[in-house]
């Protein structure tokens, strides 16, 4: 099981350390065109930066487990990605296989159409089944907020918490919209403090990360991990850690 904590502080008046920011980042390696060599390079970046996790495609879990074994970096993956339209049974199988291959964090995509149709019970039952299949691993629930109205978002976030999810997450990064300040604030207001908020989709700069952290996000899906951390080092100056 991942050792990553939901209890991550927020910064409002000073810059955090490089280590503090790194431990909020899920380094994303999900683009469909990535070759095995490119995935390996990304895993080495995650390892060097000591991020919270490397989030890989299901077919790359074995490689990620081998590279990250014994490190502080968790092996993350996705289920029902990116559209969320598979059957519950298929998603349960995906989750169990991911766990068997070494994943310790699972980001699942809800059935977006069912939530839009008001079938909140279906969504909650699906999430609960996947939480159970994850066998104690951290489960983050992706809502693809750009497709949802505010009442639909609120209903979905509450269903995720009731189903036992550890995080609610804004988006896959593959839809027309990503993380917004308004959505992060809404997510943080809707779920209780023991449920984390993950921002994904368009978090490419240190300023964006810090602003969304101020609003309540404590995990970030990012591909620009090294650029974000290097910018932080420049701002903090020589001798920063």
Strand content: 15-25%
Quick one: biggest sheet?
8 strands, parallel, barrel
Number of DSSP-assigned strands? 8
Lateral strand order in the biggest sheet = 1-2-3-4-5-6-7-8
Per CATH, the class reads Alpha Beta
Fraction in helix: 40-55%
Low-confidence stretches: 1-7
Helices and strands, with pairings:
Elements: H1 18-22, E1 25-29, H2 36-49, E2 53-56, H3 61-68, E3 74-79, H4 88-101, E4 105-109, H5 112-116, H6 120-134, E5 138-142, H7 150-162, E6 167-169, H8 181-190, E7 196-200, H9 206-215, E8 219-222, H10 225-236
Parallel strand pairs: 1-2, 1-8, 2-3, 3-4, 4-5, 5-6, 6-7, 7-8
Helix pairs in contact: 2-3, 4-6, 6-7
Write a structural description:
This protein has helices at residues 18-22, 36-49, 61-68, 88-101, 112-116, 120-134, 150-162, 181-190, 206-215, 225-236, and strands spanning 25-29, 53-56, 74-79, 105-109, 138-142, 167-169, 196-200, 219-222. It is of the alpha/beta class and 241 residues long. It has a single domain (18-235), classed as Alpha-Beta Barrel (TIM Barrel), CATH 3.20.20. The chain has an eight-stranded parallel β-barrel, surrounded by seven helices. Helix 2 (36-49) runs parallel beside helix 3.
């Amino acid at each position: 099981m991942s050792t990553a904590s939901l209890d991550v502080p927020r910064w409002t008046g000073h810059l955090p350390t490089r280590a503090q920011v790194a431990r909020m980042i899920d380094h994303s390696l999900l683009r469909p065109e990535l070759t095995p060599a490119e995935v390996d390079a990304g895993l080495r970046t995650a390892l060097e930066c000591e991020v919270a996790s490397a989030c890989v495609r299901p077919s790359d879990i074995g490689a990620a487990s081998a590279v990250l074994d014994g490190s502080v970096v968790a092996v993350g993956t996705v289920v029902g990605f990116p559209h969320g339209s598979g059957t519950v049974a298929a998603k349960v199988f995906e989750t169990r296989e991911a766990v068997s291959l070494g994943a310790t964090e699972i980001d699942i995509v809800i059935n977006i159409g069912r939530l839009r149709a008001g079938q909140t019970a279906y969504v909650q039952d699906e999430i609960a089944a996947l939480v159970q299949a994850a066998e104690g691993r951290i489960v983050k629930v992706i809502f693809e907020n750009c497709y949802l109205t505010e009442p639909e978002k609120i209903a979905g976030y509450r269903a995720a918490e009731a189903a036992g999810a550890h995080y609610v997450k804004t988006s896959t990064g593959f839809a027309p919209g990503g993380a917004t300040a308004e959505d992060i604030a809404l997510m943080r207001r809707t779920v209780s403090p023991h449920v984390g908020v993950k921002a994904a989709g368009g978090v490419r700069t240190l300023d964006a990360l810090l602003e969304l952290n101020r609003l309540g996000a404590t995990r970030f899906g990012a591909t620009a991990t090294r650029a974000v951390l290097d910018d932080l080092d420049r701002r903090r100056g020589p001798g920063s850690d």
